[in-house]
Amino acid sequence: MNPHVIEWLAAYHDGELPSGRRQQVEEHLKDCQTCRAELDALQGLSSLLKADPLPAHTPPERFAAQVQLRLPRASLSHARQKEGRLPRWVLGVPLALIGVWAFMQAALWVTSATLTADQLFGSQAALFNGWLPTGGLFETNASLFLFNIVLLVVITVLWSAWMALWLAWEKNKNQSSLKGSVI
Amino acid sequence: MTSPHGTFEIDDRDLIARAQQGDRQAFTELVTRHQAGVVSLAYRMCGDLRLAEDAAQDAFVRVWQNLNSYKPQYAFRSWLYRIAANAALDALRRERPAAEIDQGSLADPAAGPEGTVEQDQRAAQVRRAIAQLSEPLRMVLILREYQELTYQEIADALDIPVGTVMSRLNSARALLRKELLVLLEET
Questions:
Q1: Are B177 and A38 in contact (CB under 8 A)?
Q2: Do A14 and B123 touch (CB under 8 A)?
Q3: How big is chain A by its Cα radius of gyration, in Å?
Q4: Nearest chain B Cα distance for residue A44, angstroms
Q5: Per mean pLDDT, which range of A58-62, B94-98, B150-154, B159-163 is the poorest?
Q6: What is the pLDDT of residue B105?
Q7: In order of start, what are the domains of chain B with their CATH numbers?
């Protein structure tokens, strides 16, 4: 005798078992009186519950008309949907970050190339005097590299913060759309 | 125009999309389609038809007001029944304790007077037993036994894992079997 399948009987009764498991249960039920009795009890309970019919109620058309009378004049859902939207400027944050990063990369590349050319082929351009280290080619490039790293970290932090905000907002929106508790 | 599983020839999604644009006729069609299910659910939760119909109307008003927050990836029934169950519980808390149930007529027209009285008593006993269940157990039981939602639909409706649906259903059935033992032995 195979082990009992009592733990699967409720799901079997509700039609929720995958086909393989269902066959296993059906095979077992052929030989097992205990499990058959348990299944009969489940079916008996369902029949008893369903024997209590819904009393005669308002016809659907009349009910729908009554609901119509209770509806607010304008659907509030559109206003709520608008409330639920992120402001447009928030959606522009990632694009702005990409733009800033691309601009700074281009500026750093041009600066680095100009300084390298100046260091190798002539005096430093007056443009960069004063605000960039002028110790030597290696020092200058190291400073630019460091600046680039700092820039990358700042952009990554801002991007991550934006992603976290956006994901939290999406999660909240999905939950509130399904949960009746907020409705 | 429904199939045995409550699906319709014209998809609900079309009506929902139109109703989301403010089409009241489409919404009325949705109400007409789902009225029986929502009233039934509210009635099983409240045990009182007048209260249930009021809660069902309230549920549909909430649906209209929040239609744009409905996500099509979830079954409409799950979303609707969640709202309906909450509306029913709100109505119940507002009106009277859950233990009090409707003793109204449940007469089967084919049955004689004695049969009617007996059926009334059995039905009342069943409703009383259901009303005694805790709200979480009652909700899962009703969604499965009366509304015939799948485990996944119940899980979506109540925002709980499928495993929790199964364990609550088992607990509810075990309690009812104990409570209705005499009736079950009679059948």
A1: no
A2: no
A3: 35
A4: 7
A5: B94-98
A6: 40
A7: 1-100 (1.10.1740.10), 107-187 (1.10.10.10)
Q: Where are the alpha helices (DSSP H) in A51-136?
A: 60-70, 76-84, 88-91, 93-121
Query: Using a CB-CB distance cutoff of 8 angstroms, which residues of chain B are in contact with residue A175?
Result: 159
CB pairs under 8 A between A and B: 156
Note the ipTM here: 0.80
Torsion of CA B120, B123, B127, B129, to 10 degrees: 110
Closest CB to A55: pick one of B24, B68, B104: B104
Q: CB–CB of B126/A52 below 8 Å?
A: yes
Residue matched to tokens 């149930």: B101
pTM of the model: 0.65
- Identify the pLDDT of residue B27: 93
What pLDDT score was predicted for residue A180?
42
Structure-block tokens of residue A91:
């959606």
Chain B CB within 8 Å of residue A84 CB: yes
CA distance B126 to chain A (A): 7
Q: Which of A126-135, B55-64, B70-79, B94-103 has the highest mean pLDDT?
A: B55-64
Query: Which segments in chain A show pLDDT lower than 50?
Result: 79, 179-182
Contact A60 B150 (CB under 8 A): no
- B56 contacts in A (CB within 8 Å)? 63
Block residue for tokens 């509810």: B172
Question: B61 vs A70: CB contact, 8 Å cut-off?
Answer: yes
Contact assignment for A55 to B70 by CB distance below 8 Å: no
pLDDT, one tens digit per residue, over B53-62 is 999 999 999 9
For B64-132, the DSSP string reads HHTGGG--TTS-HHHHHHHHHHHHHHHHHHHHS-TT---------TTS-HHHHHHHHHHHHHHHHHHHH
